[in-house]
Amino acid sequence: MGLLSDPNRRQALISLLTRLNAPICMVCYMAGVAWFMGLAFEPFTLRTYMSENAMGSTMVEERFPAGERALATGREFAAHKKKADGMPVDWLVKTMQARGLEVFTQSFTRKLPFPDENKERYLVKGTNVYGILRAPRAPRTEALVLSAPCSPGDNNNQAVGLLLGLAQYFRNQIFWAKDIIFLVNEHDLIGMQAWLEGYHHTNTTGMDWSPLQGRGGSIQAALSLELSSDVITSLDLVLEGLNGQLPNLDLANLFYAFCQKIGVLCTIQGKLQRNDWDSVSGYSHAVQTMMLMVMKQASGRPWGDHGLFLRYHIEAATIKGINSFRQFKTDTTTIGRLLEGMYRKLNNLLERLHQSYFFYLMPSLSHFVSIGYYMPAFGLLAVILLLRALDLWVQLVTPPQRTEDGSSPEVLPVLTPLVISHLTGVALYILPIRFQDMAVEHFPVSETEAVVLTAIAIYTVPTPICEGTEQGWKVLKLVAVLYLAVLLGCTALINFSLGFILALTLVPVAAFVTPHVPKVLSAFILVILSPACTLLFSVFFFQELQEMPVSFQEGWLLYLSVISQGILDHSLYGSLVYPLIALLVYPCWLLFWNILFWK
């Protein structure tokens, strides 16, 4: 405190920070990147452990015996689904009722803002079917959910069969202290969104759905099951939800503990855990796994039906069966026993899962990186913005001259680019969907192509370059740097992965752009580090991480698809990534573009 309270010492510190500003910024940037890359090194991570006492032991005896019967039920479901050309509602209702459940249905309708070409749908109509197993030993104030989506073709029939098999088995047990809801939802996330809105009496997306006639208690946890094969080689755990939300880490720990107990191969991001962490290949594998989680979380989209539960503070995950070329095989009975063990443990909960972490990264299922370990990497990048702001503030410390009416002559040159940039952002957010009909009428494109190409056209349209004094661009840059610091800080608190990726690309731009740097080279760098190019590079990088590299043409088509899906995710589920980029990040980048070409 003495250093800051003494004017002479404070002045000396400020003088040191401004004199060595550029070297300190470069060191902070490299240190932030190095810190982040070191997070996947196993000695720097924590081993997972169960924090919730009610789930601390896996000493339950799993007895589910009916794997083959579940597969037969799955085949019967597939036949009725093919016959009905969709969800076999009547058959599901009769089958659930035969298993002693209280069965209800919910119909829903959703008109998309533009056609979803990936899934070939525009006006979506469907029905959800769910059965409730009432708790025989409790006041029925709490519930657990097991769901399986009714997917097109031959996908996920085995999951529905196993769900019905578990419903019949659970019905004969007397130890349940919570209602258990068995849900088969149609049209994947849209059906799940309709059911959750109906269950919680909310309508945040404008979807039309019929009210639920039956309801259980307050949902404590949920699992979504995806199985498309009679035998599987491993179970993959999917955690990433809407807007980068993650379930409580204890849910992942519970899954891992039962996989270890029963002897099921388990993966995260589709990758098995390796024990050779001290080798280059072992470390590379951990980095790859962690980066896949970062990329998925940064996308803001739900990567399974569980992702929509998280917005209602319900801890949820998706368990996906993988059938690869590995020799190790697991049958449906074993998977049923694993799910039985997990639900018996969740049945013991006295309160919601809250004792473990909600903010974490996972380089493997047995190790995790907590928020206290990964936030310094972002902090080292964010401090660069504060150092640059301090340097600009020192340069502007002399009060500007006042005009006769008492106003500062620098206000207008600063306000003009701020207003123009944000109006451009508003146009980028609103016009692509509003102008799709006009674009289709005048150009030979589909509605989806019209939306995407309109967004790209608005993004690339040249904005007016403002004029002003030397002091004017410094004031504008000070505002832009502080704006970016607040924006990235708030983003990282909600979605660390998105905030960190944006910081990696935008902080160098914010730190070193001025009107006095070489224009052509700086403009090229500015474009390369823009939000749109960052997304393009992320598409190729994500494919490389998945070991599914694509050509430039394939990558470009994926890029256009990602843009359309981002707009759809915002309209359908409330994803915040598209409005964040359009209304805040892109206008902020435009401010730095104005500074570069300041006249």
UniProtKB/TrEMBL annotation:
Bilayer-crossing regions: 20-41, 371-390, 410-431, 481-513, 520-542, 576-598
GO annotations of cellular component type: GPI-anchor transamidase complex
Pathway: Glycolipid biosynthesis; glycosylphosphatidylinositol-anchor biosynthesis
Principal location class: endoplasmic reticulum
GO biological process: attachment of GPI anchor to protein; GPI anchor biosynthetic process
Ranges in coiled-coil conformation: none
UniProt keyword annotations, A-Z: Disulfide bond, Endoplasmic reticulum, Glycoprotein, GPI-anchor biosynthesis, Membrane, Transmembrane, Transmembrane helix
Subcellular location: Endoplasmic reticulum membrane
Keyword Transmembrane: yes
Topological category with respect to the lipid bilayer: Multi-pass membrane protein
Superkingdom of this protein's organism: Eukaryota
Oligomeric and partner information: Heteropentamer. Part of the GPI-anchor transamidase complex, consisting of PIGK, PIGT, PIGS, PIGU and GAA1. Interacts with PIGK.
Task performed by this protein: Component of the glycosylphosphatidylinositol-anchor (GPI-anchor) transamidase (GPI-T) complex that catalyzes the formation of the linkage between a proprotein and a GPI-anchor and participates in GPI anchored protein biosynthesis. Binds GPI-anchor.
Protein name: GPI-anchor transamidase component GPAA1
Lineage of the species this protein comes from: Eukaryota, Metazoa, Chordata, Craniata, Vertebrata
